[in-house]
User: What shape does this take?
Amino acid sequence: MKNWTVVSTFFCLWLSTQLSPAVQDYIAYGFILTFGILHGANDLALIGSLRKDNQGFMSSLLRYLAIIGLVSVVFLLSTSLTLLLFVLISGYHFGEQHFGSHVQGAPGLRFVLFLMYGLTILFMIFYIKINEVVPVVNEVTQRRIGNEWYGYGLFFSTFSFLTVLTYLSVKKQLVVNYVQELFMFLVLGIVFYIASLIWAFAIYFIFWHSLPSMRDQLEFLYGKVTKATFLRYLKSSWWYWSASLLGLGGLYFLLRDQVDYFITVLLYLLAAITFPHVLVMSKVEALRNAPEN
Assistant: This one.
């Protein structure tokens, strides 16, 4: 946990007490549409770095595009399944970025730790903001999901996360500052309680995930984080980011008469770009954390 992350979070928490929920939402959408999408917009450069040869790059690129196409097909067949997969994959992705460099041991336990950490964060938001979450989920899934299920999800994910965390700690396969981790959950819980739903998600998504992920990507691609490397990052990713925004605009135009919440359309876009991004970043994390020979 970086000091700048904590300071930024407390500043955003202060803003939550000064701004109306509507203004919070506008700022949140701005952050998500800029830094949030941008942190996943450099996947092709990462693929190029992972696969140096042209044939390997093209095969990876085709798989990347195929996943986006598959997500689109799944969305057309079942919005409920798309949302479920999006929550699960996002949860794993959050956990991998947070714990990837701190844990050793069996791949299965690493997977459970990553997944349950991320689901704990997401279900904290869902449960604390249940009155705002339920209408959105009902609109996306076109079905009524009982409020009690959000509580079950939070209990199960938290219990599973703490169980695996304790086991890995006893086995000395996880090295973290547990006081900081507890403090982080307390701070995020307060943020989720005070901020609006979108603003609460944006605070975590941007300051605890997207910006740290961009830092890791800069180190992986260029070896260091500087103004010059950040500008190189922007240069190689701006067109993908622009295409994502255009896709969002087109999707909203098509669905504007069928949805009541803009977040519903945003979720569709995030699902399409998150699935392949998670696979790319998993390979990056594996290389970054691989033991040196």
Summary: The chain has one domain: 3-288. The chain is about 85% helix and 0% strand. The radius of gyration is 19 Å. The chain has a mean pLDDT of 82.
